[in-house]
Amino acid sequence: MRDGWVTLLQQRLTQQATRNTVVNASISGDTTAGGRTRLPDALKRHRPQIVILELAANDGLRGLSLRETRAQSRRHDQGRTNGGGTGTAGRHPLPPNYGPDYTGKFHAIYHDLARIHNTALVPFLLDGVALTPGSCNRRDTPARCRPTAPAR
């Protein structure tokens, strides 16, 4: 996707005259379990200096086990550390209809992992976009929010 956030990040890094290359190893709609199977190979192949993991959103949106999401996320951080890259943990809010107990425990996963692995906890990547009228194309994804080009 030529106007996706990965491409836009690469363009900004190029404009800032950095020599970093952005690699998108994601699969839209994937879960932490799916990402976990791909992470070791991607780290070995690309040998990143910085890793941005923005996973677990689909786990939460599907109401998957928080214990399993936490375990998979912890394995991601361990795999990232073993791959040599420093990292960030991207968090993702859940709609309020999941209830305060599940939502609170889901959000705690990000904070706990960032603390345990001493990584930055970055804000929700779609903050100011996902709930802003006109910022999402709500037809083309299961989550019903693919940010429009101007919103990215």
Helical/strand content category: mainly alpha
Distance between the termini: 12 Å
Query: Which regions have little confidence, pLDDT < 50, spanning 5+ residues?
Result: none
Question: Which percent range fits the helix content?
Answer: 40-55%
Please give the order of strands in the largest beta sheet: 1-2-3
The number of helical runs is 5
What topology emerges from the helices and strands here?
Layout lengths: L4 H11 L16 H15 L3 E4 L3 H5 L4 H17 L3 E5 L9 H17 L3 E3 L13 E2 L8 E2 L5
Parallel strand pairs: 1-2, 2-3
Antiparallel strand pairs: 4-5
Helix pairs in contact: 2-4, 4-5
Report on this model:
With 152 residues, the protein is mostly helical. 43% of the residues lie in helices and 11% in strands. The chain has five helices and five strands; from the N terminus they run ααβααβαβββ. The chain has helices at 5-15, 32-46, 57-61, 66-82, 100-116; strands at 50-53, 86-90, 120-122, 136-137, 146-147. A three-stranded parallel sheet has the order 1-2-3, with helices on one face. Strands 4-5 form a two-stranded antiparallel ribbon. β4 (136-137) and β5 form a beta hairpin. The N and C termini lie close together (12 Å).
